[in-house]
Amino acid sequence: MQDALLALTKYWTDRGCIVVQPFNTEVGAGTLNPATVLRVLGPEPWRVAYVEPSVRPDDARYGENPNRLQTHTQFQVILKPDPGDPQELYLGSLEALGIDVRGHDVRFVEDNWASPALGAWGLGWEVWLDGLEITQFTYFQQAGGMTLDPVSVEITYGIERIMMALQGVDHFKKIAYAPGISYGEAFGQAEYEMSRYYLDDADVEANKRLFEEFAAEARRMLDARLPVPAHSFVLKCSHIFNVLDARGSISTTERARAFGRMRGLAREVAALWAERRSELGHPLGVAELPAAAEKPSSFADVVAPATLLFEIGTEELPPHEVTRTVDAVRAAVTTKLAATRLSCGEVTVHGTPRRIVVLVPAVSPREPDAERTVRGPRVSAAFDGEGNPTKAVQGFARGQGVEVSALGRVVENGVEFVALTKSDAGRGAVEVLSGLLAEVVSDLRAEKNMKWNDPKLSFTRPIRWLLALLGQTPVPVAVSSLASGTSTRVHRTADTPVVEVSTADGYLEFLESHGIQADSSARSASIVAAAQELAASVGGVVEVDGLLDEVTNLVEWPTPILGSFEERYLELPGQILTTVMRKHQRYLPVRSADGTLLPHFVAVANGAVDADLVRAGNEAVLRARYEDAAFFWRADLKTPLDEMKSGLAKLTFADKLGSMADRAARIAALAGRFASVVDVDRETLDRAGALAKFDLGSQMVIELSSLAGVMAREYAARAGETPEVALALWEMELPRSAGDALPSSVPGALLSLADRFDLLAGLFGIGAQPTGSSDPFGLRRAALGAVTVLRAFPDLREITLPVALSLAAEGLDVSAEALETAREFAVRRYEQALLDAGHEHRFVQAVLPLADSPVLADETLTELESLAGNESFDALAAALQRVRRIVPAAVEGSYDASVLSEPAEVALHKAFDGVPRDVVGLAAFFAAAEELTGPINTFFDEVLVMAEDEKVKAARLGLLASIRDFAAPVLDWTQL
User: What's the pTM?
Assistant: First the structure.
């Protein structure tokens, strides 16, 4: 291992990095060393590489866990500014470690980083070596709350992980650290003793005093304008906080207060450091960014229609952004081409993690000439009474560069204007496309955008090259510092990673010859076909649902590989195994025909690799993850459920809403309040409520949060709880997403509703509702889940949205306005669910006033869709709309029938008086009110509603208002 550290040090120093030493106080990551977190601030260039022992007390495992240590070794690299090719430099460093990057499957998989305590965040990847995360690769965007300019590239190697993979050992203690000395022999005692200290022996009160003293000293150093010692004491605070947290002695209130204090100090340190460097005149100079590309000034002519090829080359896009960007670019190119006078075929766009490829056939060689009319002032304003030109028309002519006598006239909407007809010469296709394609690139945006070394561009990941050809003719495109060329980049590990492209025709086949499948549908089909074949070879079928799109967009050339794991792991609950496979490793599970999980999986590598090498690596990764899971499983089974739940007090939920323990107690109480209006097994509900969310305190869920609910069911059943209680605890978490399974039991449904309505009432109450695409607490998912559960349980119709939110607000400081906003938010989720299901917009709008009771709205929608098109129903709806249109909203639904004397109004009164008032549902209402259609229409044909006699007018309006009010609760008739 020490040879690896030396090799990395030499590699990066050969590329301009200075070497600094590990920081002289405990840090949780190399990022916190001032050589990173302070040096990324400001305009000075900085390249550094160093080893950093990273101390994380909460990861202490007494040296027993094969993959988890309280002190692990990071190798940290900072490249400021971004050199333009950091990924290529990184791959070179792996080769310096002896890693065969051509044989192994090395991939950049989306993993964004944020540290609220540091006011820092960045976008990037975790780097996988045959499925093993070995490096964090980040483009720093902010630090200390300050936007970074220039942007720094941070590369953080996990050395123990890399060495375990290279040396083929299954425990960190077995790593060969130096000749004849293992890692365990060198550091095993320290690992055990420091674990003992962090988990068992650290003096809580002494450490609390240290935290206060270190925070006070940091404050004193800031006041003295000494950012470096201030930063050192902030780090000491952070470490002491982590020690106290590992000891389980930090309450929710203390956690919030400590975080706020450290965050404030860290931001002051950052600001003071930047200020001090400016005062010193930035001794290292100011980093230079690439110059702007030269704008094209001449354009080649083409003489015949040709295919346009435009490729936007990027570093690895997040999988969902591949699809989104393909759609956005297709729409942009189509719209922009339509705004030109070029003729062309259909725009097709393909996407991979590293490229967006636009192909447009039969682009005309140039635009046709066109005439356009420029309109001037009205003729009446252009000439005086004697026919002499006014200043208005003279100014117009002068602006167009002609004499007044050259102007013509045009009539628009019956008004005559002076005008000038101009001839617009058509531009060549290359010139038109040059500007158009530049706009497409500069307009690119994603859900999360970042900066890199380009001074103007911003996108989800760096754009590194542009390729533009019209047939065989280059199209010059200049965007910020980027200029298009006639080459593309293929696999980084290819013998020739940059290749020339001579023509746009046959480009997809050209890419395939270099091991790149640009068509995502073709990649997807090849993954399914190969995976099915591999699964069949072991008597199974592959499970691709929910994962195929992501796997497809993680690779440019899919290479499915069959892997296996030991059957003994099948003793773990199947959902643990599949969660690890699917969520963490993006493996496709293999099942038997009856759905039983088999000890096999399919991994999808990228490009041509050594299949045996990659298989062995992925199997080792999965084995390590399953060992972790088995470790957590065994530890959790030894822990009483009440003890697990006590751990919730240490988990913060949200500011002003307490801990997860507080939230669990609210859920239990709210479910009990719901039970007062429905029939339910109270014993099951009360016991499940008492255990609500207990599994969030388990080691398994802390590590694999998506297993919340699953583990509650498993642990409850094994602890002797009844099957009904175990089921209710699992169903409380349902549904987890749109289309997910729903609770099957009433206790489970009530807990599910309580969970979601507590979330909505509490977070809307503190103003934490979603904004734009940001929804950190999953409130959209919660609202949709609550509505979906209510729709699935008609017997819970008494629990309407206002009732549920009002009950959820008990004990919380939530305004009526906030509850109404939350109610409307839930109604909008219901509306969208109906539209997504394919219901007609007008029918959805008609039932939306009933959405406070989703069950009632559903029933009404079903009846409405059945009745729509029925001649009698449509006639009744039209009649009721006539009533609603003529009656002012303020008119009350009451009248003196004795005033009515006209036959038509008397007939309407009698017909309405004979309609039963106790009908329920749209179908019953129609059956009862159908006979009103004729009298209503006759009334409008024969009676003047707005009679001169005020009493008669009031009676007539009151009669119509009564009919309006009778029909109003049934439906919004105006939408039909």
Answer: 0.85
